[in-house]
Amino acid sequence: MNKSINIALLFPGQGSQQVGMGQEIALQHKEAQRIFEEADDILKFKLSTLCWNGPKKDLDDTYNTQPALYTCSMATIAVLKTLIPNFIPEYAAGHSLGEITALASMESMNFAQGLRLVRERGKLMKEAGINFPGGMAAILNVKNTQLIKICEEASIGSGKHVQIANDNCPGQLVISGELDALKLAIELVKTQSPGKAIRLPVSIAAHSPLMKDVSEQYRNTINKINFNQPITKIVGNAQLNILDSNETISNELVQQLTSPVRWRETIDYLIANNVTNFVEVGSGNVLTGLMRRINKKMNALNVNNSEAILKLVNQVL
User: Does the annotation mark 29 as catalytic?
Assistant: First the structure.
């Protein structure tokens, strides 16, 4: 198998789900259909029906969202591997949850292992949201350095904790933490910056210390998997390191629960290593949009239907 230089595959995380995801590809390609059928069998419920028909409320439940996004991306990968059997990207990366998809797609674990892992991840994050409720807010047009100071001030002022959870692209950050600190941080954004703060409709403080209590349970699940070295270089969200061994992968996945998603830096790292073509694999086009805000000179393609799959096939062959 030959590596396709200058190409990175990107895998989406929560927020990219939508009713109907993966259905057209499954109807057109038996390989994708088989992936959805396998997911239904493993989870013992019709994940395929939820992805294709909703209801949206259930699809947006993190317990379901995570396996849904994973399965949709892996179904697309199954089609690509059939149509381009020698295709290996030079790099891969995934946004939060998408990191697990990146690992499974690049054969660090099999589909079933990855599916059970994201299902457990969703279950534990939901439990953390119930036992240690918090919140998140999107922060627009505030520089990273200023927002760090605002979060520090809000944490001191409230006696609680809030921090940057996602650095998605220039002008788009997300903060996460305990409610008192989060509310104070939102007020400080309004009074100390020209930016805008938008409270997100979630009770889970993802990528913050509020996930720490479930992170050890998550580690126990991760430790049951003996990760293979991926067939290409995968860049981790938490430390921007290459995930190339069982140890680095295990540590990254646990650390990621409580650490910020450094997506902007991930893309900058890939560009610095001569990647010029970015392919988002799975539902939606969130990462393609972020890509264009990080560096509009790069080529970006989102592959979420049969037409886009054929476009990628023609580019690679």
Answer: no
pLDDT in tens, 181-207: 999 999 999 999 999 999 998 889 999
Q: How many CB atoms lie within 10 A of CB 45?
A: 12
Q: 237-277: per-residue pLDDT in tens?
A: 999 999 999 999 999 999 999 999 999 999 999 999 999 99
- Find the largest Cα–Cα distance for the chain: 58
pTM: 0.95
Name the CATH topology of 2-129+210-316: Malonyl-Coenzyme A Acyl Carrier Protein; domain 2 (3.40.366)
User: Which among 207, 215, 259, 283 is annotated as catalytic?
Assistant: 207
Does 176 participate in catalysis according to the annotation?
A: no
Sheet hosting strand 87-94, strand order edge to edge: 233-234, 87-94, 2-11, 277-281, 299-303
The catalytic residue among 4, 96, 105, 208 is 96
Which class in CATH covers the domain with range 134-202? alpha beta
Domain ranges in the chain are 2-129+210-316, 134-202
Contacts of 191 (CB under 8 A, 6+ apart): none
